[in-house]
Amino acid sequence: MTDDIGAFVPGPRVRIEGRAGGPLAGLTFAAKDLFDVAGVPTGGGNHDWPTGRPIPKNNAWAVQTLLDAGATLIGKTITDEVSLGILGENAFDGTPVNVRAPGRVPGGSSSGSAAAVAAGLCDTALGTDTGGSVRVPASFCGLHGIRPTHGRLDLSGMMPQAPTSDTTGWFARDAETFARVSGVLLGEAIPARLPTQLVVAVDAFGFADAEVAAALQPMVKRLAAVVGASREEIMAPPGLSVWARARRTLQPHEAYTTFRDWLDKGNPRFAFSVARALVMGSMIAETDRAWAGLMRQEARARMAYLLPPGTVLCLPTTPFPAPLRGQPLQVLDPLRDRITCLCAHGGLAGHPQVSLPGATVGGLPVGLSIVGPRGSDATLVAVAQAMEKAA
Amino acid sequence: MTDDIGAFVPGPRVRIEGRAGGPLAGLTFAAKDLFDVAGVPTGGGNHDWPTGRPIPKNNAWAVQTLLDAGATLIGKTITDEVSLGILGENAFDGTPVNVRAPGRVPGGSSSGSAAAVAAGLCDTALGTDTGGSVRVPASFCGLHGIRPTHGRLDLSGMMPQAPTSDTTGWFARDAETFARVSGVLLGEAIPARLPTQLVVAVDAFGFADAEVAAALQPMVKRLAAVVGASREEIMAPPGLSVWARARRTLQPHEAYTTFRDWLDKGNPRFAFSVARALVMGSMIAETDRAWAGLMRQEARARMAYLLPPGTVLCLPTTPFPAPLRGQPLQVLDPLRDRITCLCAHGGLAGHPQVSLPGATVGGLPVGLSIVGPRGSDATLVAVAQAMEKAA
Lengths: 391, 391
Hints:
The structure is a homodimer.
Chain A: E1 28-32, H1 61-68, E2 72-77, H2 111-118, E3 124-128, H3 135-141, E4 144-147, E5 168-172, H4 175-186, E6 197-201, H5 202-207, H6 210-227, E7 230-233, H7 240-266, E8 269-271, H8 272-282, H9 286-306, E9 311-316, H10 329-349, E10 353-361, E11 364-371, H11 377-390
Parallel strand pairs in A: 1-2, 1-3, 6-7, 6-9
Antiparallel strand pairs in A: 3-5, 4-5, 4-10, 9-11, 10-11
Helix pairs in contact in A: 4-11, 6-11, 7-8, 7-9, 7-10
């Protein structure tokens, strides 16, 4: 196993041994370069972000929690600039290799974390998910990946982007490791009891490439068998694209607000596409944000209605497998937009979501996602275990 | 004289001896890194611009013309990224030191060329002026600088930005050197005959800081004496700000069009402010450009009316001397806008303009500009000589 896949941030590799005897003893992990590690500048995927900022004195909560549980930190990983990106191509630090889909992007913004786990360089890795940044690379790299219930984990020491959507997530190759790590970070035992009702989001399956929907069908069948009962529903009655548009109204403006003072004082360097997202965010009118805020309320109500206790919803994590690396923006922009249509509910409603590996299209991984009621994170992990056992 | 003022592009310094015995024998010059030099990548002030482009096989016309006339090239100079900037702060290569105004910007985008001439590192230097990129640094660095009649010089080997406004210009510390270089690049002897009518642009003087208008009064008086007769006129009856707005409608869109394919395929890195200008340019509506095109026609008619043969118009080159380096965008953006109000006529109407040194405000240089009929470039240079003699 080579580690020359460009997953780690350039420079000396950080390593911190985990506490002896913890529940994660023997596991290794990496942390996206949005998480503070004491004594190491937090890069944020942008060469001008660390300038003038104090070097962190403390580890981020998620990093410290994994260390305390016995896992060993073996490096910080490349991220899309200031976590604004969904494909994993960083103009400053390069694009980590997706060993499961050679020549393809790893997905972002938690690109290096997903690539490192997929390549077997570590057992798990911390990412962040604001608009899909764990879910999408999990799908593209064939991994388990979780976006927890929004607001559940302590985000201290994690660089913010759009706080009303920001979450800390993580990846693993197999369900057992995923469950061990999840138990620690969720602070909750993984339950034995599974949901009893599966909702299949027909609009989301219809929106994905036909080959993706077909490739996921065996997993959907297995999931229905694991859960016991299933029915079809439209997830987003106004349209997945309408939810995506609301998301694209709220999140870029919130990101612009997060970074506004830095942009003003530092005039930092960005890839054109990243600067463009911030400029667009700066120009979103308050009236449009007010409309999108109402849509967010409606999306929350819809997801709560679809997901009473004991229910799990499934949808394709991404509408297609990983696109080719190095394509022009006019090719990538519509792909980004389509991805957002399948990810928007996460940031809008804040429900927990796990992307499960197990399907491929033309040899390329693509994930099936399960979404649960708010707070049901550990139950989703239990479903992931049951799915792996049933495979 | 140190040359450690950050005026030259990083890396090995290019040097090409001028042809022996030419009219510029003994002079040295530098070229803004928008001009091709055979065998040297043209940087364009942006680290991603040279990627994938062939290394120039030929010298740019202006470089070759100076070499043929006997001047020796001693280096390529820093420019604002892809010539989009008016202050001379480059996030990749740094900000050249303005020896005439320590702690202040040199002006841009021909920042390194102006800084190098001001510091005495060379006798003259090539710049480009699309929206003020020679005139502004000439004013801030206390130099002679010319924006020639648009369309007059051969621009081959000069990186374009907005072709309907792009020009090749140059700097010198004294009028005699300025005249020698101008004679060669204009391909025309500097005439003895001077204009006979001076038009003082009262709106432009009113728009400048009161201290600047006052500091320029002795030069205006001297100019009136040199020319013989003067009268006051409004240069821009609809308003300098209206002309500036038309300019800000036409030029950024044209620049975006110039770079669109590169942005799409290369997703290059820029300082935020530069990317922002390109994004804004991409969003300008055709209806707004149509309006601005009509305004440009009107501005051309107005400038032609004001400048019949034998006439010269004067205005402050910039509304203030060089601002402090390293200020936030919210401070710099309004300054850029004000500068545009005094520079917009150049790109709109294409008349030749020379900025003359000789005034200071609080010890900081500020230039007086003279504008002539199209094609009267050499006459403006003659006026510069007469002004220096009369000082």
